[in-house]
Specification:
Distance between the termini: 32 Å
Radius of gyration: 20 Å
CATH class of the largest domain: Mainly Alpha
Strand content: under 5%
Number of helices: 11
CATH architecture of the largest domain: Up-down Bundle
Shape: flat
CATH topology of the largest domain: Growth Hormone, Chain: A
CATH superfamily of the largest domain: MFS general substrate transporter like domains
Length: about 280
């Protein structure tokens, strides 16, 4: 039987996203008028309203856009928060590094595009690494991945702000960042696969993908605004932005720790966790 689309939920979520993304994207260029701050202030109530609508739809026996009851479980909610923050930093890097290399350093589009090849390659490799980790290590892989991601951002910031600009060094550090993000992503996807009830597997798949897209949009708007506000001096702008990205990645490591404190349900073996991580991470 086909599911009915939760139009009220779609509308409420769309409003919440518009209230966040639009002022962040347009605010700097418009001089941060009052309406941008009003929109940002209304974003939190809009999210609360969206969640209330989802609970009301579920209470009536309907089919909400998001299964709030399942997402409220700490291991699941913290895992989704981690994925949203960590993956969001990648989208921000896509934007800021292109701005920095092209407008700041004068490279062409081809160079800025190829600069992220090490990141993508390392991200793909991470799934295979997680698959081969011992069961005990898989549990802590999300935290380790976020810490590696944060360390890569911090190292890029230090190298940039101290004037040690080197394309090979940047490639290595971006590769480390991609490996960290991939380890976090692969391990958390495997964990979610293991602990989510079978009846809600499709819901979690859709929610995790949507949340990462939302995190990407908000991150590009937020970190992109930070970079552009400082873009008169491109080197400082990129260095400071990557410091902010490092802070975000370290914040993700804290939420990853909260997500992995509990052992997965008994029916999910460590092998299943690792195999699912590999399948979702590559």
């Amino acid at each position: 039987m086909s599911r009915r689309l939760d139009l009220a939920g779609v509308a409420a979520l769309s409003v919440a996203l518009v209230l966040v993304v639009v002022p962040l994207v347009l605010g700097r260029g418009a001089g941060w008028p009052a309406w941008t701050w009003i929109c940002l202030g209304l974003a939190a109530p809009a999210v609360v309203g969206f969640l209330a609508i989802q609970r009301r739809v579920a209470a009536r026996g309907g089919e909400p856009l998001v299964a709030v009851g399942v997402l409220a479980r700490p291991a699941i909610s913290w895992a989704l928060v981690t994925m949203g923050i960590a993956t969001g930093t990648y989208y921000a890097v896509l934007f800021t590094i292109a701005q920095y290399l092209q407008q700041g350093l004068g490279y062409g589009p081809a160079v800025s595009g190829l600069a992220l090849v090490p990141w993508v390659a390392a991200f793909g490799l991470a799934g295979q690494l997680v698959r081969r980790l011992p069961a005990r290590s898989v549990r802590w892989a999300p935290v380790s991945g976020c810490l590696l991601l944060g360390a890569a951002y911090a190292a890029i910031a230090v190298a940039t702000l101290t004037g040690h600009r080197s394309e090979p060094l940047l490639a290595v550090l971006l590769g480390a960042g991609g490996l960290g993000l991939g380890i976090q992503f692969s391990a958390l996807m495997g964990r979610l696969t293991a602990i989510v009830p079978v009846d809600y597997a499709a819901d979690i798949s859709g929610v995790s993908t949507t949340l990462m897209q939302i995190g990407g949009a908000v991150s590009v708007a937020g970190f992109g605004t930070l970079y552009l506000a400082l873009s008169a001096h491109a080197t400082n702008a990129f260095g400071i932005t990557t410091i902010a990205l490092a802070v975000a990645a370290l914040t993700a490591s804290l939420s990853a720790y909260r997500a992995t404190r509990q052992v997965p349900a008994p029916h999910a073996s460590p092998t299943a966790v690792a195999s699912a991580a590999s399948a979702n991470g590559v």
